[in-house]
Design a protein that fits this description.
By secondary structure, the protein is mainly α. It has helices spanning 2-10, 22-39, 43-46, 49-54, 59-115.
């Protein structure tokens, strides 16, 4: 109940359909002013020496100039981290397939050798007599 009363108190007054509210009108005017400023921007006038040092808002320009190496390095690190992570995943999968292929070959060789084994097994090779002379 109290929440509904607070919502009603702080909400804006209803505006009939087809009419603009004061907030919408001020928002449209500020947006139109911003779009007009962007459209009227002229690089030649902005970088003209007298205008640049006396009237222009040069803060964003110098911030961009100052932080360009950091921004570039961050994007470069982000790109290469993603690429190497993808490459690492592909290498892991490739290594697993290679390991599987080698083990399958080893199993086939062992199976072929076991099939040729003599019935009694392989006798151990004895070099010299088993007891001293």
């Amino acid at each position: 109940m109290a929440l509904r009363m607070a919502m009603r108190r702080f909400s804006s007054k209803p505006v009939p359909l087809g009419l603009d509210s004061a907030q919408a009108t001020s928002l449209k005017q500020s947006l139109n002013g911003f779009v007009g400023n962007v459209k009227s921007f002229n690089f030649g006038r902005f970088f003209e020496e007298k205008y640049f040092w006396e009237k222009a808002n040069v803060g964003p320009f110098f911030l961009l100039l100052f932080f360009t190496p950091t921004i570039y390095r961050s994007f470069k690190d982000f790109y290469w981290t993603r690429q190497l992570r993808k490459l690492s995943t592909e290498e892991i999968i490739s290594d697993r397939y290679e390991w599987l292929r080698l083990n399958m070959i080893q199993d086939e060789v062992e199976a072929a050798l076991i099939s040729r084994m003599p019935a009694g097994g392989v006798k151990s090779l004895e070099l010299g007599p088993s007891s001293p002379p």
